[in-house]
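Dear H.,

Thanks for agreeing to be a second pair of eyes. The structure we're designing against is below in token form, covering all 466 positions.
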């Protein structure tokens, strides 16, 4: 019978990082991964991390020239729907890596710290004791036989499928529902080269909120990645890219070298990440940045808290109950959860703004202003004069016919919902005893907010659904 302190399901970014952090603290760790090593995290080639995040989360930064590390670049602006009025956000020096290779580097680091990683070993089910506490997992061995491993805690780092979380009973404080199609961002990446070699690709980098599209460095002999994310389907995302982005944002002529497609959850995070003997981390917990859908490092905010709490409990011999681990939930909500989830309703309102209206806002520094966009990552601080300027800009837009009253109503609705979510998360329950009542109130607000699917263009939906 196998016994471990920590059993991790999934050996991608979150799983390997968590394995390393727990193993280097002296805890026994087993990681089970369904894929063979060469197939792990192959949906995307390139992913980015800021240097600040690399330092904060004790991640490995290969030296320049290492084949895992492709390039480094500075922050990029946000552009209006027609490619005008760039607004530079906060500056975050960023490094681009080959994702699969970087994860293999993380896995080796975890093994050197003492973690055991089994590839080609799919998770099958959770093991429970008589009181309903998670005590381990069943997985398929490399020879096809059923194996059992017992652990003081099981961590689901399996990504969107959340194969372990969805095996929890309906009575769990951790949501056991699958992430539905309406709560997923379908991401398409076009690796391109500009025909005119005098074009500076970096001068074209940036984010376009209205299309959920961006241009970023690609490396590997490509000039750039043109990416787009959308609700509904890959077909919908590709149609938005062709019929809206490329039509409205004039780019130099380019050729497409390769196309990658992948998924990321795009919804509120779990209300509770922990239950007796269990924790969900990463995409399985829907931990993604609302502004970009990125999840690799945003999930490590929770992971860092979890490592501290769980390691202390293991060292003291305290049981890993939901009561003893509840501080992971409350600390995460204060550190990031409130900011991320309260921003989603406002973003839904801003995305619904028409292209012409958004162009007006960018031009006049209203809503899409330099100050707001620069503070979007670390918190927006607006004084009375800022708010007054926003109100005046909106009123001017209405009086001049640039802004529809219905648009203002949608934005105000988003602001109101954002405020409600913020207040609810400020009052996150101090213990599991008060969780059910809080969840009931919060569910009622989220039901009215809807999902990323609600931001889809009805005309494009008709075309792709034919």
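And this is the sequence the design step returned. I haven't edited it by hand at all.
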């Amino acid at each position: 019978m196998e016994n471990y302190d920590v059993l991790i399901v999934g050996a991608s970014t979150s799983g390997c990082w968590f394995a390393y952090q727990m193993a280097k603290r002296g805890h026994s760790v087993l990681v089970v991964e369904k894929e063979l090593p060469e197939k792990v995290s192959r949906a995307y080639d390139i992913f980015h991390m800021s240097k600040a995040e690399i330092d904060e989360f004790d991640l490995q930064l290969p030296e320049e020239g290492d084949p895992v590390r492709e390039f480094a670049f500075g922050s990029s602006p946000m552009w209006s729907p027609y490619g005008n009025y760039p607004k530079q956000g906060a500056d975050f020096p960023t490094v681009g890596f080959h994702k699969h290779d970087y994860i293999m580097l993380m896995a080796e680091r975890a093994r050197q710290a003492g973690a055991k990683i089994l590839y080609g070993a799919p998770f099958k089910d959770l093991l429970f004791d008589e009181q309903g506490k998670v005590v381990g997992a069943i997985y398929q061995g490399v020879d096809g036989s059923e194996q059992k491993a017992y652990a003081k805690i099981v961590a689901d780092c399996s990504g969107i499928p959340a194969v372990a979380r969805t095996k929890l009973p309906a009575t769990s404080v951790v949501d056991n529902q699958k992430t539905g199609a309406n709560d997923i961002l379908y991401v398409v990446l076009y690796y391109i080269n500009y025909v005119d070699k005098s074009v500076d690709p970096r001068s074209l980098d940036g984010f376009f909120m209205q299309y959920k599209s961006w241009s970023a460095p690609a490396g590997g002999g490509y000039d750039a990645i043109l990416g787009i994310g959308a609700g509904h389907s890959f077909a919908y995302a590709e149609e938005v890219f062709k019929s809206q982005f490329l039509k409205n944002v004039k780019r130099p002529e380019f050729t497409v070298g390769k196309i990658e497609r992948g998924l990321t959850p795009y919804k509120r995070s779990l209300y509770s990440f922990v239950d007796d003997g269990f924790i969900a981390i990463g995409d399985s917990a829907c931990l993604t940045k609302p502004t970009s859908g990125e999840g690799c490092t945003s999930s490590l905010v929770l992971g860092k808290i979890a490592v501290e709490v769980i390691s202390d409990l293991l060292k003291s011999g305290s049981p890993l109950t939901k009561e003893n681990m509840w501080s992971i939930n409350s600390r995460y909500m204060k550190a990031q959860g409130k900011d991320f989830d309260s921003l989603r309703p406002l973003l839904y309102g801003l995305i619904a703004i028409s292209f012409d209206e958004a162009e007006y806002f960018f031009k006049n520094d209203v809503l899409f202003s330099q100050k707001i966009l620069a503070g979007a990552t670390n918190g927006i601080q607006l004084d009375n004069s800022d708010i007054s300027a926003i109100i005046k800009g909106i009123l001017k837009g209405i009086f001049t016919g640039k802004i529809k009253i219905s648009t203002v109503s949608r934005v105000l609705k988003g602001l109101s919902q954002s405020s409600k979510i913020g207040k609810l998360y400020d009052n996150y329950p101090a213990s599991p005893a008060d969780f059910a009542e809080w969840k009931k109130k919060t569910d009622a607000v989220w039901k009215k907010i809807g999902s990323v699917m609600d931001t889809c263009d009805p005309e494009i939906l008709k075309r792709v659904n034919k």
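Two observations from my side: Residues 182-265 form a domain with the D-Amino Acid Oxidase; Chain A, domain 2 fold (CATH 3.30.9.10). Residues 322-351 form the longest helix (30 residues).

Warmly,
E.
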